[in-house]
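Weekly structure sync, notes
Attendees: PL (lead), two postdocs, one rotation student
Agenda item 3: pending single-chain targets
PL asked that the sequence for the first pending target be pasted directly into the notes so everyone works from the same version. It is reproduced below exactly as submitted, 329 residues in total.
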Amino acid sequence: MFKALILDKNDSGVEATLQDINIDQLPEGDVLVNVEYSTLNYKDGLVLNGAGGLVRDYPHVGGIDFAGTVEDSSHPDFKAGDKVVLTGWRVGEIHWGGYAQKARVSGDWLVALPDGLSTKQAMSVGTAGFTAMLGVMVLEDQGLTPDQGEVLVTGAAGGVGSVAVAILHQLGYQVAGSTGRADTHDYLKELGVSTLVAREELAETSKRPLEKERWAGCIDAVGGTTLARVLAQLKYGASAAAIGLAGGNDLPATVIPFLLRGVNLLGIDSVMCPKEKRVRAWQRIQSDLPLEKLEEMTQEAKLEDLPKLGKDILKGNVRGRVVIDVAGS
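Predicted structure, written out during the meeting:
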């Protein structure tokens, strides 16, 4: 028997309870993992609260990320004792996820944990940090270099934003961070933000299709009016990596920035990302994310804390990253 946070649906909504279950209750898969750590993402908050229509069947175990040690495997790439990490593939949504002390999944979804990263550190990164790294990589693939000017990170105090700031600063970029929370300014400066941009500066729809060229690139976790405003402020040929929609999924923009400045809007998907790119991203995380900064942005919690944390993250009240000590719950 092992512990799992079971979600069930009743007339009053979705209820989460910590239960003891057995291996026979786990879904099918060719790798059984002893989960050591999981984490909390915005999508986890939706699942925990029955929002967004992400979960089709109950009872359910959420947790879109986990890291741990292989207990048993019939997959050719993994054997007992291997350290592994999982993000995406709709685990935690349509397949039981990391909010249990054991998980059974397809080995095709797993990545071997890079040397130098612990399972706890991997979950300090989690989907949020993994997605941030994908954003940095795609901007680099479009030619971004540190000598081109400031790179803007919107939603900078959130999980994606915090890791993006730390990585960009480590790579030598000048980082501007946009946030609506004044109490996070010191935190963001410690991570590497040199210019703070108030959320309100980007929150209003621009009256002009083009504004003064300001940003050499952008990692955007907000969407909506903010992303539209950023597109109008990008330098000639610059790119924005669209990662999130905390500010809405509409885009009240024009095509003018694309036509007259040759800017690029680059979509980032971490869920179905091919394995080769996943391996490359995790290797880059190990080499380019300063681990001391990772520790500063991380708080630890247990499975029983998740119902409250799930509500907090949907309200925007979670700063940085939350690691869930699954094995110790």
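Discussion points:
- The CA atoms of residues 4 and 82 lie 22 Å apart.
- The first strand starts at residue 2 and ends at 10.
Action: rotation student to compare against the earlier draft before next sync.
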